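Per-record layout

source: Bifidobacterium choladohabitans
name: RNA pseudouridylate synthase
length: 250
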Amino acid sequence: MIVGSGQRGHRIVLEEPPIPFEPRVIYEDQRIIVVDKPHFLATMPRGMWYAGTVLIRMRQLYGEPDIIPAHRLDRATAGVLVLVRDPAARRAYQMLFQEHRVRKIYQCLAPVRPMVRPRTGTVRHLDPPRVFPLERRSRVIKRRGILQAWEECGPVNAITRVELTAGRGCLATYTLYPQTGKTHQLRVHMNSLGLPMVGDDLYPRIRTRSYDDFSRPLQLVARRLEFTDPYTGVKRTFTSSVPLDPQGEA
């Protein structure tokens, strides 16, 4: 149930399922707060989620209603998330992400098996004849109100470098370097290669689960962010400690 409005115009959600995970603060200064976001916790209020979001929990923890995210992570994705606490600094940090001046490194668990040839876009092997590392380029489209994104023919808007990092029996750890930031880009690209991520409820097919089922997290973590601080000129590197769990479902 959603009624009224909350902080900064966000809707207040009643009877919201509790999410038993908390973001861990890994850095803070007078301008930003960096957290290690757990799986299942949305970045900011949307739909039925209000209290179960990083934004609201950080505003309540610090008593600072002006905190906003500099970027977003999907609710299903864990890892490094940057929030801005100084309103005067919002634009500078948000532009780092919008202008792709942040180096993002993700890790995921996915099957070990032969790669398939995607129906659209291109795959370039960067160290032939080895399969990995490779560069996946395609056009990814995501429409509001539709759960899945998809690939179609047309100008490329999504680019990801994929490396095979370590094998774990029938599963492997892949390290992903997105050069663009389309919604669900990494999940779509891995699925298009025939390597869907462990615990993915959307790709290759939609799997429904109860809102309070936290048993099978998506095995995707925003492992590291690197950027030059726009105010101090210091190179910042933040790393997530959220583990990948090989016990999840493939």
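summary: Confidence is low (pLDDT under 50) at residues 1-7. Helices lie at 54-62, 90-98, 185-192.
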